[in-house]
Amino acid sequence: MKAYLLTVFSGEQAAGNPAGVVVLDDWLDTATLQQIARQLAQPVTTFVVHDESQYAVRWFSQQAEINLCGHGSLAAAAVLLEFGEQAFGDAGTETEVAADVETAAEANTMTLTSEHGTVIVRKDGARYHMTLPGWQPNRSPDLKRYLKQIGLPVIDSFATRDLVLVAESPALVRQFTPDMAVLAAIADYHAVILTAQDGSDGYVLRYFAPKIGIDEDIATGSAQCSLALYWLEQLGRETLKVTQLSAQGGAFVVRQQGEGHISLQVEVRLVSVLNLP
């Protein structure tokens, strides 16, 4: 069994987010998947199984299974598109798997399915385009209690899967010092996202998910599901540049992709291939 280590959402001034990918013949039990994720020690490890002519995926941090991981999806698609049937090891010798991977590689497109939705990734030269759902903001009055707990002045706030706080400037986003105990105690949301407008054609963000073992994520594709439609409407643009202000940094280009969907344009780099016992 092989593990592929990659960086996703890299750029000229962004080191990107590491991810592991393990392609399996069949699903292992959850405890074993979690053990492998801890062994690889990546922010996220994506497991892929060829299941009934589909590529099914599950994502794990080092502490727990997570849902709809953008950078993990891109890493998995990159492995399948770059290595083809070889990525499946013994499974790749099966005619159905080999044919399906070959067809996807010829089309430069990979569709990944999960319990949390479908992710479509297309390779375009050295870059990858990923289609994700775009989530509409919910402006519940209950959010006010969280704003007081977090202690950050904001100009707007809303919720999707995540709690989103809109600051007045990129400087406030960069300078924010989170209280992880407070953020981890916010049980109603997957993560807390801090964001701000960046010029006339972009936005910045930071992403905190301590309750799933990621205090601050490096570069988060799924965060754009919460942010993109909001900023596309606010700024009146069809395409936006996005910068994630983590220590390593993440870079994206985001646009609306039909009704209720967005697309990300990013870079993916293979770092190494490991043999697992």
UniProtKB/TrEMBL annotation:
Keywords: Isomerase. It comes from Photobacterium atrarenae. Pfam families: PhzC-PhzF (PF02567). Belongs to the PhzF family. This is PhzF family phenazine biosynthesis protein. The keyword Transferase does not apply. The keyword Isomerase applies.
